[in-house]
């Protein structure tokens, strides 16, 4: 069945493989922006990025520029960055603090909630000019979970709660069960880009098969460190990186995770791991809760280095203490932003270790980003080969099992990639299913009329 633009998504994504055109075809990329990024829920930002009244950050939903801003009453707004007069953007600074946004073309000025505040030479407009109808356009649907702000440009669709499903539990662990305003996102952002399709980074972030090869130098340094100076938790696990155990899980709706529980990023640092302690009564309660659920050692590691390794479809990755956001720029160019997080209720020395563990593997001069980006570009380049144009994703398919409503595989299985592609295919074909139903109903009506 072909889509309206002649693309046959049914034939491009199989259970155990995908066609390389899904990474290279500009028409597919345009369709993805429309169906996935403009109609569905996408992650935009965390309210911890704009903690004070007047704070703002520029964002994008798909290709559309957005201002995420906190007004004087503390409410967070998502405003489309386009003047209602002649269409210029009203904000160009990536982040900052302001009392209003002013278009530099003709001077129209907007309040932090998007309302139109001022228009030069108002007498040039007639009596029908309605200032209240000409504020910055607000993103139609905005939802939030523990300060994570998601949005959709479509006024109708599945509720955010239903979209997140099981992924909410992983967001809870990532946030250390903290409230929205207890998560701080003020330590800067790492940015990098690569010449490759955005889905390569999504797949790779949940790939438990590649680390011992792509990150071999990191693995060797890590194992040397663990062998000589193991933490209490590391003394009890297999120190063979290639034999690292865990599960790959499909949580549903395209959300997937690698569940290996032990955190591994910090051991390269020479700093001793500090005792994890809270500095507020609320934090003490959260720490006790995590201790009861996971045990003291594991809870401490989760708070020092992060509590989950999860991809939330289509553009948010939670690894270690960072929120990683994918921004597709074109079919073969992608920007990636990494936001390390702190928790207000943790002692300062614990938050310091969170940042050091983040820098150890994910910093601009570390292992993770450069290793992976090189592979993304090699894959994109390899997609130019058109003979046998398929990428195989069958690893572990024969041993997948169903547990508690989830599809579960071994850590190195491609269960996670298959979960992402199932959701991608479902969304990309949604319009065609509806159109097919309409065509059937139409044909039925014609048949009845003729009868």
List keywords for this structure.
451 residues; alpha+beta; 4-stranded antiparallel β-sheet; globular; disordered C terminus
Q: How does the SSE layout of this entry go?
A:
Blueprint: H1 9-12, E1 17-19, H2 21-24, H3 26-38, E2 42-46, E3 55-61, E4 64-70, E5 76-80, E6 95-97, E7 101-102, E8 109-110, E9 116-118, E10 141-145, E11 148-152, H4 160-164, H5 167-174, E12 183-184, E13 190-194, H6 198-205, H7 211-214, H8 216-228, E14 247-252, E15 255-259, H9 281-294, H10 296-305, E16 309-312, E17 316-319, E18 322-330, E19 333-340, E20 342-343, H11 348-362, H12 368-382, E21 390-392, E22 401-403, E23 406-410, H13 415-450
Antiparallel strand pairs: 1-21, 2-11, 3-4, 3-6, 4-5, 7-8, 8-9, 10-11, 12-20, 13-19, 14-15, 14-23, 15-16, 16-17, 17-18, 18-19, 22-23
Helix pairs in contact: 3-13, 9-10
Describe, in plain words, how this protein is organized in 3D.
The protein is of the alpha+beta class and 451 residues long. The chain has 13 helices and 23 strands. It has a 9-stranded antiparallel β-sheet, sandwiched between helices. Strands 5-4-3-6 form a 4-stranded antiparallel β-sheet, with no helix packed on it. Strands 2-11-10 form a 3-stranded antiparallel β-sheet. Helix 3 (26-38) packs across helix 13 and helix 9 (281-294) crosses helix 10. The two termini are 28 Å apart.
Give a nutshell description of this structure.
This protein is an alpha+beta fold and 451 residues long.
